[in-house]
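Input record (one chain):
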Amino acid sequence: MPELPEVETVRRFLDAYILGKTISHIEILSPKSFIGSFEIVEGQKIISTSRLGKQLSLHLKNGLILLFHLKMTGQVIIGDSVFGHPTPKEDKTVLPNKSTRIVFTFSDKTKLFFNDQRKFGWVKVLNKDELIEFQQNVGIDAISPDFTDKYFYQQLQKTSRSIKAVLLDQSFFAGIGNIYANDALFLSKINPTIPAKKITLKQAKILRQNLVDLMEESIFHGGSTAKDNKYIHPDGTKGEHQYHFRVYQRSGEPCLVCQTPIKRIKIGGRGTFYCPKCQK
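The corresponding structure, as predicted from the sequence alone:
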């Protein structure tokens, strides 16, 4: 699933490619993927973009918002790119294809494709009040200035669930996903199974900083295109943070610090990677 750095990378691409463009037509190929009236969106100019955690918003001139959630396999592809699902060895395909769910056409005839193999992702039409209500149960964004040591520690003290599971809970912290939770816990020398409320203030400060640093690092690298190749940039290129994973998807490989083989377990149904020696 695209996490905070991947969605932020998509947002920055869209800022460069579609900001100021007017949506002339929306073709909905999968009704499940588009929620709301497309008629009140057609003819509207995109005036800004924003992001909260893994949710991406396109703000329109009439005050409405197109809220995107990529979920597990969503892609946003711009222009006449020949990239997207499915991803054969050469990583190319013609769009729209069998995974294209929505096609946005702009007044300059360029297009934006919303692809989603598994149909879990969606685009919603909301007004400002509806957006606020929809996001009221989402935690503070994990690279926001409001994501402070105090807030982070207080949230951890609320639950006895494993620290790994809590990091993935979007009602606690918006944007943290499996990649960055695994690697931040490794850098912080914290075992992923420890109950969140047993994390000390000192540990919480270190962990929060590692989370922020990792996500900023990943944004610099254009996000992570993991082994499944599901996440790509809107222009079809790949992220490069996957070359900098510390423990994520490195099961059986030597720890970068102590050479102990990285172990893989499941916590809350999610693959969890850690070093048994460094993260006792």
